[in-house]
Amino acid sequence: MDIDLADLDFWRRPLKERHEAFARLRQADLPVFFPEKKVPLLRSGTGFYALVRHADVVEASRNAKVFSSEPAVTNPEPPGWVKHVFGESMVNMDDPRHARLRRIVSRAFSPRMLQGLQADIEKACARIVDDVIAKGPGDFVSQVAARLPIHVICDMMGIPESMRAKVHEHVDASTAYSGVRPSLLQSARLAGKNVVALLALQRMVIQLGHERVAEPGKDLVSALVTANPDGEKLTDKELGSFFALLLVAGNETARNTMAHGIKLLTDHPAQRELLMSDFDGHVNGAIEEMVRHVSPIIQFRRTVTEDFALRGLELKKGDRVVLFYGSANRDEEVFPDADAFDITRDTKPHVGFGGPGPHFCLGANLARQEMRTMFRELLTRLPDIRSVGEPELLVSNFDNSVRSQSFTF
Ligand code: HEM
C-alpha cells in the first residue's frame, strides 16, 4: 500500500487524496502499523497502529485505562521542550491527576459561566463585522476567524486589556511551529520562538494569578487560584500550563472550523439557503456538520497500558495507537455519503471534539457558542458574504489549519 501516515510527505498531499487514502485504510481488516520515521527535533518512536474506523476511535477514547494519554497525546513523541512547557497539561494525563485538574477547571465551562459570556461574545462578533464592513473584502482568517476565539479566552481568564497585545503577539509566535517543516534549521528556529512565546505567556498568567490571590475578581484566573468547595486549586505551574493549553486547544481549532466553514457554505448554496430559511432551527446542525466535515484536529495518540485485543488486533503493553478523527468522521458505516456537507444529518456520533471519554473536549460547548454567534452575525448582516478561491492550507499532520482564505461580500 503506497500510504505511509508516518511519512510527513503524506501530509503534503492534497486533502482529497488524503481522504481517499483513509477510505482505503478503513477497508483493511485490521488497523495498519506504520513504523516511525526520524523527524528533525522530534524523537523517533517505535511506530503506531492507525485507528481509522469510527468504532475503533470510540473504543480507544472510552477505555482510558487501557488507552493512556500519558506520557503525551501528540505523535511522534514530542521533544523535551514541549514536555517542559506542556508537561503538566491535563490532556497528557490519566486519572487521578487528570480528574483532579478537570474538576478544578471545568467550573469555567459550566452552562452558567457560558451563558454569562454570551453578551460579550455577541459584542465581539458585532465589532468584528463592523470592522469587516469598514475594511472591505480580504482575508477571512485574519479579519474574522482568528479574532474571536482568542478574545473569548482572554475574557474568560480576565486578562486585562493592557496585556492583550502581548498575548496576541506570543500566541502568533507560539503557533508558528504547528506545521510540517522542510528543514532542520527552520524547525529549530520556529521551535525556539515557540517555546519562548509559550513560556512568556505562562509567566504573564502566573503573575496575574498572584495578583488575583491578593485581590480576587469574578474571572477564571481568580477562580482557579482560589480553592473550590473541595479545597482544590491550581499551582502556579498548573495555571501556566492550563492557559497554554487553552490557547492552543481553543484558538486554532475554532478559527480553522470557521475558515473552512465559510467555504463549505459557499460551495453548498442549497445547504446555506436551508440554513437561512430557519437559522435557529438549523444552526446547531450546521455547526456540528462543519466540525465533522472539517475535523479540525487530525489526530491524537494513546499508549497501551496492558495487552489488549482490539477488534482482533493483539495489542501489546507499550504499543502506540493513533486516533484519526477525520477518518472516523468519514466512516461510511456511521455517516452515509460522508463527503457530502449535509446540515440535517445526524452528526451526534461525530468525534471532531474527541471520542466519548474522560478527555472529551472541555471547550466543545464554548466553541459551538462562538461559532453560532459569529455565523449569525456574519450571515444576517452580510447576506452575500462568501469565500473566493481555494484556502491556503498549512501543511500539518496535527491540525487542519487554514493560513488564509479570501472572501468578499
Ligand atoms: C472546533 C473547536 C474545537 C475542536 C475541534 C476541539 C477538539 C478537541 C479534541 C479532539 C480534544 C480531545 C483530546 C483527547 O481526547 O485527547 C479536545 C480536548 C480539549 N479541548 Fe477542545 N476543541 C475545540 C475547541 C476548544 C475550545 C474553544 C477550548 C477552550 C477554550 C478547548 C479546550 C479543550 C481542552 C482543555 C481539552 C482537554 C480536555 C481533557 O484532556 O480533559 N477546545 N478538544
TrEMBL record:
Check the record and name the SUPFAM superfamilies matching this protein.
Cytochrome P450 (SSF48264)
Identify the Gene3D superfamilies for this entry.
Answer: Cytochrome P450
InterPro entries in alphabetical order? Cyt_P450 (IPR001128), Cyt_P450_B (IPR002397), Cyt_P450_sf (IPR036396)
Family to which this protein belongs: Belongs to the cytochrome P450 family.
* Protein known as: Methyl-branched lipid omega-hydroxylase Cyp124
Q: Which species is this UniProt entry from?
A: Nonomuraea recticatena
Q: What is the lineage of its organism?
A: Bacteria, Bacillati, Actinomycetota, Actinomycetes, Streptosporangiales
Q: Which gene encodes it?
A: cyp124_2
